[in-house]
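Quick start: what a row looks like.
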Amino acid sequence: ADQQDWDTVGKPRLEAVRGILAGETFAPEARARLAAVDAELKTIGYDAAAHDAVRRREQDGRSTEAELRRLETARAALAPLQREITELQAQWERQTEELRGQRTVYDDAAASLAAAEAQAPDVNAAERDWLQILEQENKLRGQVGAAQQQVNVLDTQRARKKDLTSRRADLTKQISQLKSLERAFSKDGVPALLIEQALPDIEEHANSILGQLSGETMSVRFVTQRDYKDKNRDDKKETLDIVINDGSGARDYEMFSGGEAFRVNFAIRLALSRVLAQRAEARLQTLVIDEGFGSQDALGRQRLVEAINLVKPDFAKILVITHLEELKDAFPNRIEVEKTLRGSTIRVV
């Protein structure tokens, strides 16, 4: 439907727009105003280079003005900084005075420490207490080491979790891509698209040949979609049905006679061969027709011979195998096979 809409509406409109652009007939009023503006510019002696030079000087002046503003801002900020320096100097003097007082306190504390050291307890007892404290410290260090090991394990597990999460995301993305590929290469994907693209050419060639064989009374049509039996479904079922029409209307393939069925088969096979050869850009070399004439009446056999002669330019060699004697004269070159008591013999005529 999109292709048909494009062929009937979009493509003609595109060609019309291209013609308008090529002939420069678009926007006549705007083009006239533009020409008037160009003429006025020439009249007043407008110089684009001088205009650009003035613009650059004006932009340079803007940067100088911005620097002046920054200088004024710095000058405005200078007074608070000077006040802050004065306050810091006063604070420094106060802290110096406090330092002198703290030093006096320190000297008193040092004297008290010396007096306390003179009255210090037994060194051996203090050493035993120190050893006990050291042992407790070692135990606590061991506990800290065990806890740190657990923390390291937890960090490892976190890193592993992060890696697994990343792998899961990659696998999820890969699964999504593979599902897309699976759908694309399923019977409803790319193969269906290729078949739908090729079917119009096959149908055209088949109807051309079948019309020659049936006196323009038979035709075929390929149907690629049909409704599901479930009436609640809105989508279509992918299929490939061959609808055969004759003078009486459309009938199933099984309802046609052997001769009619042979004509349909012959037309479709030749059409398929032609399309494959065109797409491969190669010439069909050989066509072999094994029997099939016996199911035709005299008119059908005549039309079949005409169809063979019609497609003769498409093949390098055509071989027709038949037991009907009346067809001998229809083909100029023959290989006749005759059975005898001693075996079969061949003769090229």
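That is the whole record. The beta strands are 219-227, 236-246, 249-251, 284-290, 315-321, 335-340, 343-348. The two ends are 56 Å apart (CA to CA).
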